[in-house]
Design brief:
The chain is an alpha/beta fold and about 350 residues long. Helix content is about 35%, strand content about 20%. It has helices spanning about 10-25, 65-75, 90-95, 100-120, 155-175, 195-210, 230-240, 260-270, 315-320, 330-345; strands at about 5, 25-30, 50, 55-60, 80-85, 125-130, 175-185, 185, 215, 225, 225-230, 250, 255, 275, 285, 290-295. It has an eight-stranded mixed β-sheet, with helices on both faces. Strand 1, helix 1 and strand 2 form a beta-alpha-beta unit. Helix 4 runs parallel beside helix 5. It binds NADP nicotinamide-adenine-dinucleotide phosphate (NAP) and guanosine-5'-diphosphate-alpha-D-mannose (GDD). NADP nicotinamide-adenine-dinucleotide phosphate binds near residues 10, 35 and 104.
């Protein structure tokens, strides 16, 4: 049985990837970090140990800031695959904690790759690095491809740039089967509530049921290429099953503004949203009730914004036969179904 180590197992992508790897019959070492209360809500329905199909789930304690814990895990389980998903992944917050973000997102990747080398796993362990479309930042071409120059615009993106090149360097210098997945935004009902899509589906469903008055939003004119996380973990898995390591973009090729996402969600929930005012004084009013349901709050603006991201995943389609199976509408449906049920349970 192959062993796969997943860092960031408790996050959005980790929760889908752990399930995918168990369905492939792997022994999955899901790395958790120390916390006073468990962060395992997204894995709550899984029981550690041997699963019905013979696969196995093991929780291991480690932190990307702590080389000793990583070395211990690598020594003990000698995984054939390492998926490095752990990160301080919030772009806005990275401006508040730039040093910590660099420590985990940049040096964390180095610690893992160097650990793979020092434990003698360089020629047997395949490594996936969770790279990001944020690398393209102030974009130099539209859509962005694997060859588009990087222009990062946040401490998060700059830390991920270091991790990207470290991954390439360990591939070239030591022959590690190391791949960068340059993933465009992907969302799901498991998305953290601080990210814009989930903030909207969670907030709008709560407003619909009278549990919340309004949403306070940042720059609604930013455009993103939003896919479904379930499709994107399939791509991560495929990258490590190839005969040679490479770097791939995963994206839908379709872009929407945060405003469009918000308007679609509110209209599905039967609001009649109309905009009044401009800039920080802009408000979204529900014509049916006359209430203000959306306000602009500059707290959510970023010192440097990424205004536009849209990816070209031709390489992944051709070489990995990867497809984004969920449409934009499917994604919204999935998130709204989940968040409406959640809001109903809170009434
Ligand atoms: P997420 O939900 O924020 O999950 C982040 C994970 O990292 C959590 O499991 C978190 O653990 C863990 N973590 C944070 N700091 C850690 C540390 N010091 N040591 C060990 N684990 C730590 O992120 P996601 O959306 O699933 O994204 C997964 C990865 O893909 C991230 O690296 C992200 O930067 C990258 N990425 C995401 C997207 C996207 O659109 N989702 C796109 C491109 C790239 P706790 O649960 O304990 O906090
Ligand atoms: N979070 C948030 N909250 N974003 C808002 C808000 C708000 O109230 N209002 C507008 N936005 C805009 C942001 O300014 C940004 O331009 C866009 O919505 C998307 O923000 P996020 O959902 O926070 O995601 P992100 O694009 O910054 O970063 C995510 O995707 C990256 C891949 O491109 C994260 O998952 C990163 O970890 C990932 O690498």
């Amino acid at each position: 049985m192959k062993t796969s180590l997943v860092t960031g197992a408790t996050g959005q992508d980790g929760s889908y990837l752990v399930r995918k790897l168990l369905s492939e019959g792997r022994r999955v070492c899901a790395m958790l970090r120390c916390s006073s209360t468990p962060h395992t809500a997204r894995l709550a329905d899984l029981t550690p140990g041997v699963q019905a199909n013979g696969s196995e789930l093991i929780y291991v304690l480690g932190d990307l800031g702590d080389s000793a814990s990583l070395l211990r895990i690598l020594e003990e389980y000698r995984p054939e695959e390492v998926y490095n998903l752990a990160a301080q992944s919030d772009v806005r917050r990275s401006f508040d904690v730039p040093e910590y973000t660099g420590e985990i997102d940049a040096l964390g990747a180095l610690r893992l790759l160097e650990g793979i080398r020092q434990t003698g796993l360089a020629s047997t362990t395949r490594y996936y690095q969770a790279s990001t479309s944020e690398l393209f930042g102030e974009v130099r071409e539209k859509p962005q491809r694997e060859t588009t120059p990087f222009a990062p615009r946040s401490p998060y993106a700059i830390a991920k740039l270091y991790a990207y090149w470290t991954t390439v360097n360990y591939r070239e210098a030591y022959g590690v089967f190391a791949c960068n997945g340059i993933l465009f935004n992907h969302e799901s009902p498991m998305r953290g509530e601080n990210f814009v899509t989930r903030k909207i589906t969670r907030g709008a469903t709560r407003i619909r049921l009278g549990l919340q008055d309004k949403l306070r939003m940042g720059n609604l004119d930013a455009r993103r290429d939003w896919g479904h996380a379930e499709d994107y973990v399939e791509g991560m898995y495929l990258m490590l099953q190839q005969s040679t390591p490479d770097d791939y973009i995963l994206a839908t090729g379709e872009e929407h503004s945060a405003r469009e996402f918000l308007e679609l969600v509110f209209s599905r929930l039967d609001f009649q949203l109309e905009w009044e005012g401009s800039g920080v004084n802009e408000r979204g009013i529900d014509r049916k009730s006359g209430k203000t349901v959306v306000e602009i709050d500059p707290t959510f603006f970023r010192p440097t914004e990424v205004n536009y991201l849209c990816g070209d995943a031709t390489k992944a389609r051709e070489k990995l036969q990867w497809r984004a199976r969920h449409s934009f509408d499917d994604l919204i449906d999935d998130m709204l179904r989940h968040d409406m049920a959640l809001a109903e349970s809170e009434r």
